[in-house]
Amino acid sequence: MTAVCVRSGMRPRRSRFGQFLVSTAILSAILILAISGLAYQVLLSRQDVQAQPVKELVEAVTASFREAMAAALANVTRDYNVTGNMAMARQKALAYLSRWKLAAMSAYADAGLQVDFSFPSEQLALKIQPAKVLYNSPIPDRYVYNLTKLYWYYPQSVSAIYATLKLNLTGLGLYGWQQDVLVLLNATLDPSSIAVDVSENTTSFSFSITQEYGRAVTTLDNLSLSVLYLDPAKNSWVKATLKEVTYKGGGNYYIRVSPAAKSPYERYLHFWVTDPRGILVEMYGMAFFDMVIQDNAVTSQRPGSELETFVFELAQNGKVSWFGKDLARSGGSDPFPLPPIPAKQFSLNVTTRGPSSDFVERPIQIEVWDRSFSRPLSVFNASKPETWYSRFNQSAKLVFQVNYPSGLLPARQKVRVWWYDDVDKHSPPRAVYFSLSQGDAVLSNGVLNITTYFASSVGQYLDYNLRIDYKGAGDAKARHSYVGIQGWEYDSARGWWPRYIPAINGRWNFRGIDGDLLTGPVRALMYANTSDCLDGPEQRILSGPLQIFTLVYLADGVRYAVILVNGTWLSTTTTNLYDAQYMYSQSTVDYVYRYCFLSQNKRVSGVFDSPDLPRTNRWKCYERTGSEGTGYVWWWTEWNQTFGFAVFGGRRFSEFFYTGEIKNLDGDFAVGRDAVDMRVIEPRLINRVPSSIGGRGSGTRVIPAGLKFSYGSAIWVYDGGGVEGWNVPDYYFPMFLEDNWPTIVSEG
After folding, report:
1. DSSP character string of 145-165
2. What is the pLDDT of residue 574?
């Protein structure tokens, strides 16, 4: 019994201890759950407390970044507007945003702000505007990449900046937050709304302006706008005075300025607008203009060829020149002015075979001249990109070539002058057509070389002395001839001696004011400007009464060079020769035939037909008669079997030689044979040779002070030929004749 009782008494004790353990475990579990719940509630409460500051910080940083982006874009637009250098403006914008990044992290350092931004490459660009045609201007797809893009100079222009903001708030437990930020300004000029009120002397137009996401800009004023119009009297874009700025709602404005735009440029305005954030856009009412240029030298008998290539010069006022003179416009068409945009934006297309054929982009050359277009100052080139950043202005020329292929009749080609809206456009490559050796400048285009050259063996008293080198198709070596000026005056004491011949040699300028060669993708230039002259057989150089400017240019791939001459007599001068402008030609090879021509379609029968003519009867004179037409000396040529050399003068050249401003001269034309087998083209010379030595002239005349003259001539080379070798230049000289010069037959 006892034993049983003892065992029975032990069980209850053991059971109470187990119950204690279970109770303790349950209590512990309850406590743990209670603590866990409390902790969870505390955590929830803590997170609820911190959510508001995280949101506010993110919004504050994002708003600050958007403001920084707008400020960066404003800076880009202002910097580019002044410099034309988008790369530099973009770098400055990037530097500005990098400084903002450092300032933001410093301001929110307690929250552990880590911030960065990125922007897409061109391959991942954001499209901000689809392609369309607006006011007859084709506007391509527009994208923003590389941080910021400007699309200007079209009727609709855009300035935009785009980046992705990334941030962490390590002190508040926020990681990996990011947001895309786009800031832009979009403005549209309506060219059809441009109206001129002559009675009020005002010009009016309409435009619209919006920000990103189509938000209208409603608070523009006079300080936000700038309007330019072309003043024909000044040949310059000038700033108009704002008379009225009226907001029409929806981002639309009506503008009125004075004075009224002048004919024939009433429809063209250049326009800047700035929004309240300082972001700028620049607009022009068109994206391109077309003109059809007709070659009037091409006929059914003369169908043109790949050699019929003209070098045209286009000025800011839209006038086009060839051979030193402006082209005529038919049908009452008016010129289109070039917008005053950075030169790097321009491009040019020419049709391949007639106005309805395909366009092909052609090289252009931008040149800067003095205001009178008498002297080239520089040629923009890729070695100095900053030259292309300069804005096209009244001193600039856009130079291009147009070819008229064989069989194109009427011989018309359409030229489209256009400009890029993307301001990241790069300048075209530079082609070098100059070389320098032994003090001479050499112009070369791969077809012929022109060298500034002087040698006493070529002629004792002459200038400008240009040597023309050319290797024909059947020639093993290059042949050359010379062209220049020669003059003589008879003095009873000293005999024949030169006077007032411009001492150009050694005074050629082939570099611009910036020290660069005057050359580009289309042509190379050199010029001389001097009043120095040679006096007497001693060849003394002194300052004379005649100021001479001579310009020579050689274009890419053509067979001709152009010489343009302008002269001014500085003081009243008595002489028995108009010495300054006698052209001569001379060769170092035997020429079998020499012809000279008096009129467009007539060949003179009397010629030098042998290089071995005796040096007696030095002059051959050809009288101007009615049967020979007008008597103008269009051109002359010399050639042998492998080399031909021709000088195309044209009417200005001939009229200068025959009469110029000096009247009562008969129209004789003489070909002289001088030393070293030289052929000298000497119109009017014999008229003023004193009768005492066989001449018919009085020997003296007075040239008044201020008398001006100008002419042009083209030097042309070819492969020569047999007896009929003159037919080759006979075929090409009409393109240099004023009666046949190209004309602009339509524009639009």
Report:
1. -SSEEEE-SSSEEEEEEEEEE
2. 74
